[in-house]
Design brief:
GO molecular function: protein dimerization activity
Helix content: 55-70%
Number of helices: 3
Radius of gyration: 11 Å
GO biological process, one term: regulation of DNA-templated transcription
Number of domains: 1
Pfam families: SinI
Structural class: mainly alpha
Protein name: Antagonist of SinR
InterPro entries: SinR/SinI_dimer_dom, SinR/SinI_dimer_dom_sf
Order of helices and strands: HHH
Largest sheet: none
């Protein structure tokens, strides 16, 4: 997880926390990217 965290050093700390929590809950990076690209439900 530390490696992932260092990639986010230029982001808002709250965004980093949300992304890290999502990853810990088992949400994939691809799912996070899709949501950020289109946050409205499909």
């Amino acid at each position: 997880m530390e490696m992932i965290h260092t990639q986010f050093t230029n982001l808002d700390p709250e965004w980093v926390e949300l992304i890290m929590e999502a990853l810990e809950l088992g949400i994939s990076e691809e799912e996070i990217k899709k949501f950020l690209a289109n946050p409205t439900p499909c």
